[in-house]
Write a structure and sequence with these properties.
The protein is α+β, with helices and mostly antiparallel strands. It contains 10 helices and 16 strands. The protein has helices at about 1-15, 50-65, 85-95, 115, 215-220, 240-255, 270-280, 280-285, 345-360, 365-380, and strands spanning about 15-20, 30, 35-40, 100-105, 110, 115-120, 125-130, 150, 155-160, 165-170, 185-190, 195-200, 205, 310-320, 325-330, 340-345. The strands form 4 sheets. Strands 5-4-9-15-12-14 form a 6-stranded mixed β-sheet. It has a 5-stranded antiparallel β-sheet with strand order 6-7-3-10-11.
């Protein structure tokens, strides 16, 4: 009986969740992924001061406004660089949405790019994100778009025309671009290049009882289930957890974080010495690996999102044919299946299993517990 009890409890704690495949797709709405664009270079970085230090200052500013974990120019002697206000420099030289994007279309319907591509703080600085949970809602005067696809609308398609070199990310709505992003889900689009990207999506639906299980049993978090120690973003996802892991590592190793880190850039960011420290520890703070590896890197204990879909790039072509950058992202077809996470062993199932086992082996039940209490206490007192 004890062995059966242990097996029932183990199944409850380790195998409470099961995945099934749904194919009743006729009434589904499939969400389009979030699309984020980040500036990656600038031709306007110029310094009008002392000519002898101009080259060093310009290189330092370029490393500053597009910081990606290393600042090798910080090791070059530069007295002017130490006096610069990093936040002001980034604000001055980073381009706004209207300076990056010129035309946008959703399913061939034009819309104002900067009403839908909204500012998003990332490890790369301010980027502009479409259809993201982390951006503020558009103004009430913005056109009403529904960024999902079904049998009525057909597969969704997004067109973007850029006027600067950008890095494109497409990802789940609760995710954000981060240093360890999947390379298949990011592209560098230079002026004159045209990218055509076709993707397939497999979404995850959750049974209503999934939320009733503790996080450690279902092994995932919903976006609104943000831990108290996650401060860099408002919603939980694997990527936001890793960004927090990066920030914590910066503070542990260098007692500061870089000036582009979300939220923490308003509290205490690194000076030149701090950026040197981050550069020296680049392999540690910008690499991820599993527990047990001896290589430099971070071990981030981050659970996946409960709703994170799976994206598969079906076709990816590049051409050079215009003076602008052009990006076409579309669903190759509407999905015909999706995963559903269901609860197969609830607390009540555990109680029923233990009760049934006890009844089988020793004839015990809840009534037996009451009778035992009666026999040991109440009846003895009466006698």
């Amino acid at each position: 009986m004890i062995l059966v009890f242990k097996a029932s409890y183990k199944s409850y704690t380790e195998n409470a969740i099961s995945f099934v495949t749904e194919t009743a797709y006729l009434n589904w709405n499939t969400s389009f992924p979030a699309v984020t664009l980040c500036e990656i270079s600038s031709s306007e970085v110029a310094w009008n001061g002392d000519k002898e230090e101009a080259e060093a200052v310009q290189q330092f500013i370029a490393d500053l406004i597009f910081f990606t974990g290393s600042c090798y120019s910080c090791h070059t002697p530069c007295s002017i660089c130490e006096k610069l206000d990093f936040a002001d420099i980034v604000e001055k030289f980073r381009k706004k949405c209207s300076q990056l994007l010129s035309k946008c279309k959703w399913n061939e319907t034009p819309f104002d790019c900067c009403e839908k591509f909204l500012p998003l703080e990332t490890e790369y600085g301010i980027c502009y994100s479409f259809n993201s949970l982390h951006t503020k809602k558009p103004s009430q005067h913005a056109s009403d778009f529904h960024f999902f696809s079904n049998r009525k609308t057909g597969p969704g398609a997004l067109f973007i025309q850029t006027i600067e070199d950008v890095r494109l990310y497409f990802h789940a709505r609760e995710d954000v671009p981060f240093i360890n992003s999947d390379p298949d889900q990011r592209k560098d689009v230079m002026l004159g290049e045209t990218y055509n990207i076709s993707i397939n999506i497999i979404e995850i639906e959750n049974d209503e009882n999934v939320r009733l299980l503790p996080v450690e049993k279902r092994r995932c978090r919903f976006p609104e289930e943000k831990p108290n120690d996650l401060i860099v973003h408002e919603f939980y996802s694997y990527s936001t957890c890793v960004v927090q892991c990066h920030a914590d590592a910066h503070i542990d190793l260098c007692n500061c974080t870089h000036h582009l880190m979300p939220v923490l850039n308003k509290k205490k960011y690194c000076d030149i010495e701090g950026l040197k420290c981050l550069t020296d520890n680049f392999e540690t703070v910008n690499r991820l690996h599993a527990k047990g590896f001896d290589k430099p890197g971070l071990v981030c204990d981050c659970l996946p999102s409960c709703i994170e879909p799976e994206y598969k790039v079906v076709a990816d072509t590049k051409e050079v044919k215009s003076s602008h950058g052009e990006i076409f992202i579309n669903l190759q077809s509407l999905p015909t299946s999706r995963f559903k996470r269901i609860v197969v062993r609830t607390t009540m199932d555990l109680v029923v299993s233990i009760g049934g086992t006890a009844g089988l082996f020793i004839g015990a039940s809840i009534l037996s517990i009451v009778e035992t209490f009666y026999l040991l206490c109440l009846r003895r007192r009466i006698e």
